[in-house]
């Protein structure tokens, strides 16, 4: 089906044509979802905010004129809705940024019930702004957990400025108008935001990644070791200062020795109890984690492992255990039989 030019769609939307509105906004929904997720750190909150953005755009359709960009208008609505939500929502992060290192010889603490942890984001839903491979790699850096954790340290306004100016490259004049700030305040906010990122050693530049010919054998070895319960082999794939965490459990463990102790005492208490299903999250290799259920004799979805590599070694592992946050990945409830 041929979609009419934007000008024609706008006139139809002004006249109250719901179908024209859907055609008009459809190209922007994925990038709005990505933007709101970066702002909020929650896929589900981002999804709700995108729907609220489209509702507001429909309700206020008569106030839009074709003197500006419809895409920019949607971003303005979405950003301000995110800022409103952030005034009443807790800052999301990961355990390494909110608590001291945990002792692997002590029992794990109870899961935190509050929505305070970052949620994972499926790579297949990430907006693709550029066709150039290098630019795509650069944009992927802005969806990684390390970047998202770092920008949670910013004020909501600084976060919006960084994403709109530093990531999406909107002009300072536009961002100032959207946020009711001066251009000077926007430029100053961008400088402070970038300074914070440098302090967290998260720079807005693409990093070298292993080519698939090198990465895939490593990932296959990781799967084999995990499913065999080979703790020494798994730890051997990690950097000496690697860390491991399992939100919503408010604990994290750093160093091969500590992670090995955790594996032996808590995770691999029985052999052959895990299966892994490959996927991708936050521009990183990931696996659906399935645990054996002796009553049903099946492997049931238990969590999502997201790996961050430094060269050929794993720098950190985030294991998301809140199953509700995994719904966007459409992982099967039980490990499929192959």
From TrEMBL:
From the UniProt record, give one GO term of the biological process aspect: DNA-templated transcription initiation
Say which domain of life the source belongs to.
Answer: Bacteria
Q: Ranges for the RNA polymerase sigma-70 region domain?
A: 24-89
Q: Which NCBIfam families match?
A: PRK08241.1 (NF006089), sigma70-ECF (TIGR02937), SigX5 (TIGR02960)
SUPFAM superfamilies linked: NTF2-like, Sigma2 domain of RNA polymerase sigma factors, Sigma3 and sigma4 domains of RNA polymerase sigma factors
Location of the RNA polymerase sigma factor 70 region 4 type domain = 145-194
Family as reported in the entry's similarity comment: Belongs to the sigma-70 factor family. ECF subfamily.
Protein name as it appears in the record = RNA polymerase sigma factor
> Any idea which UniProt keywords this protein has?
DNA-binding, Sigma factor, Transcription, Transcription regulation
Assembly with partners or alone:
Interacts transiently with the RNA polymerase catalytic core formed by RpoA, RpoB, RpoC and RpoZ (2 alpha, 1 beta, 1 beta' and 1 omega subunit) to form the RNA polymerase holoenzyme that can initiate transcription.
Task: Give me the gene this protein comes from.
Answer: sigG_1
Please give one Gene Ontology molecular function term for this protein: DNA binding
Question: Which Pfam families does the entry mention?
Answer: Sigma70_r2, Sigma70_r4_2
| Stretches for region Disordered | 91-113
Metal-binding is among the record's keywords: no
Gene3D superfamilies linked: 1.10.1740.10, 3.10.450.50, Winged helix-like DNA-binding domain superfamily/Winged helix DNA-binding domain
